[in-house]
Amino acid sequence: MAPSAPKVSDAKIVSMEPLKGEEAKWTKLVKITYTDPLNKTRTWESAERATRPANSEIDGVGVLAILHKPTGPELLLQKQFRPPIGKVCIEVPAGLCDEGETGEEAAIRELKEETGYYGEVVRDPREEGGKLGSGIMFNDPGFTNTNTRLIPVTIDPSDPRNHPHNLATSLEENEFIETFSVPLKDLWLRCRELEAEGYAIDARVGGLAEGMRLAAMLESGGGGVGVKYVAAKNTMPAQEVVASPTRGTMEEDDGAAKKGGRMWGGYGPSVGGDQS
Predict the structure, then answer these.
(1) Using CA atoms, how far apart are residues 165 and 167, in angstroms rounded to an integer?
(2) Is 70 exceeded by the pLDDT of residue 239?
(3) pLDDT in tens, 116-172
(4) Using alpha carbons only, what angle is made at residue 273 by residues 247 and 79, rounded to the nearest 5 degrees?
């Protein structure tokens, strides 16, 4: 019997110990001296990537890859074990920029290498140059200067290169990635379910889900704060959530959402937390 393919969930932490600066290949610690608004001299400890290309404003990119299916658009996601947190993380395809590479070029390359899909950067004629991508985003500015851009990419399933039988990844020897997709309309709920199953939610994925949920709430006239109730829907354990005072039960809200065409109905606790 052929050995089964390795699973990202099989990875585990063996040990942890301090890292000497001369042994670090990918990162470095720096001590910053600065003056505060009162002109008092202070110091700050920070970490930096050692891999940012010369003349590049960013370390890497995240790819918001939209897979267009007959049932509706789906977001391409990945499961990857991340040693710093000791968990499998739910992420978008992402990677570091190569020397002389634009963010858009890096996004297309990383998408192909990590998922096998061929994609096309989404263009917006209202934007200068037609590019539809985020500005520079800093992941954790209180700790590190590492940054990224989110690049939206569309995937055409009718392209023969994107047929399931033709998908071929080009992963590094130390990369183990499992790719899957989630309907955009279910993104927030699926994040909550995955978190309950023990997965970590990357801030880019969780932020996107929360932003879409908030936009849907505001568009529908919701967004009030006040009445608390217990969510009785879904397969997840009941949780206390905050809703608009004008709302009733989760079931009633979902029903209204379906009739009104909103992206999703139920409100719930946020994904992730404060990293300050």
Answers:
(1) 6
(2) no
(3) 999 999 987 776 666 667 899 998 999 999 999 999 999 999 999 999 999 999 999
(4) 100
In the predicted model, is pLDDT for residue 38 greater than 90? yes
Contact 243, 229 (CB under 8 A): yes
What per-residue confidence (pLDDT) applies to 123?
A: 82
Q: For the whole prediction, is pTM greater than 0.85?
A: no
